[in-house]
Amino acid sequence: MAVNRLWLIRHGESEGNVAASKAEREGSPVIALDARDSDVELSPVGVEQATALRTWLSTLAHPIDEYWVSPYRRARQTLSLALGDLPAPLPTVIDERLRDRELGILDLLTTRGVQERHPDEAARRRHLGRFYHRPPGGESWADVTLRLRSFLGERLDTSPGTVLVVAHDAVIMLMMYVLLRLTEAELLAFSAAHTVRNASVTELVRTEDGWTLVTFSAVEHLAAEGAEITVHSGGDDVTHD
User: Fold this and answer.
1) Cβ–Cβ < 8 Å for 148, 178
2) What SS3 state is found at 128?
3) How much is the average pLDDT of 52-65?
4) How far apart are CA 51 and CA 99, in angstroms?
5) Rounded distance, CA 204 to CA 216, Å?
6) Element (H or E) spanning 57, and its range?
7) How many angstroms separate the CA atoms of 121 and 65, rounded?
8) pLDDT > 90 in the chain, percent
């Protein structure tokens, strides 16, 4: 057994996405959010987006053989709503290595908040770059990559053919980094020009020559079901995915 097709889905819009975007628009230094990151739920729009995934799932040419999902509530909600009343659930792997990136002391701060409260950290990030900067108490993209390499090393050659993954912006970007064998420069250039949209679908297929990107951040299924399309970028370490 081996995985030969991965569908990577970002969770639907979350209350954290909404709060972070509102704080950035208003120029607030702090994101008003009471729940811990792992407990953040989908927004009403996110519920609609996740539900809109049902029709897409029911028409796949390659049926799903297994689900991998982040333990965070917004990801688990997205999968549950997407499945709806579809046939009995297939094997589901919930693994903390698929969780969102941890921001440490920068958690719940906007761009303004980081500059005002941790100017030295903002300068350190500019020096180290997005991939290697680790906020105190948090993770760098390189740290997230390490846990994803661990997870994929365990699952890719033991799980069946087609797997659907529900996770987060950074997790999807970094899975692509690992599987497509991108360089740091290629990843940073791609992430600067592209956003993983809420409830979007990214498809990777494995051939004899390795993994290939077929579709990135597709949202046609949302438009077809009348669900709002939202773009909440992971940005510069300051927004909740």
Assistant:
1) yes
2) helix
3) 92
4) 22
5) 9
6) helix 44-58
7) 44
8) 89
First to last CA, the chain: 33
138 contacts: CB under 8 Å, gap ≥ 6: 101, 102, 103, 104, 105, 106, 107
203 by Cβ neighbours in 10 Å (0-12 / 13-18 / 19+) ranks as: middle
CATH hierarchy code of domain 5-224: 3.40.50.1240
Mean pLDDT of the chain: 94
* β partners of residue 6: 163, 204
Cα angle 195, 70, 25; round to 5 = 40
Q: What is the pLDDT of residues 152-195, one digit of tens each?
A: 999 999 998 999 999 999 999 999 999 999 999 999 999 999 99
Q: Do 42 and 50 meet the contact criterion of CB atoms below 8 Å apart?
A: yes
Collapse the DSSP code of 67 into the 3-class scheme (helix H, G, I; strand E, B; otherwise coil) and give the result.
strand
Q: Does the pLDDT at position 43 exceed 90?
A: yes
The pLDDT of residue 234 = 61
Tell me the pLDDT tens digit for each residue of 78-116: 999 999 977 667 889 999 999 999 999 999 999 999 999
Assess contact for 176 and 204: CB atoms under 8 A.
Answer: yes
Cα 136 to Cα 41, 104, 116, 154, 208, distances in angstroms: 26, 6, 16, 29, 41
Q: What pLDDT is recorded for position 233?
A: 74
Distance CA 3, CA 26 (A): 45
**Whose CA is closest to 52, among 73, 94, 81?**
81
pTM over 0.85: yes
CA of 55: how far to CAs of 83, 86, 130, in Å?
9, 10, 37
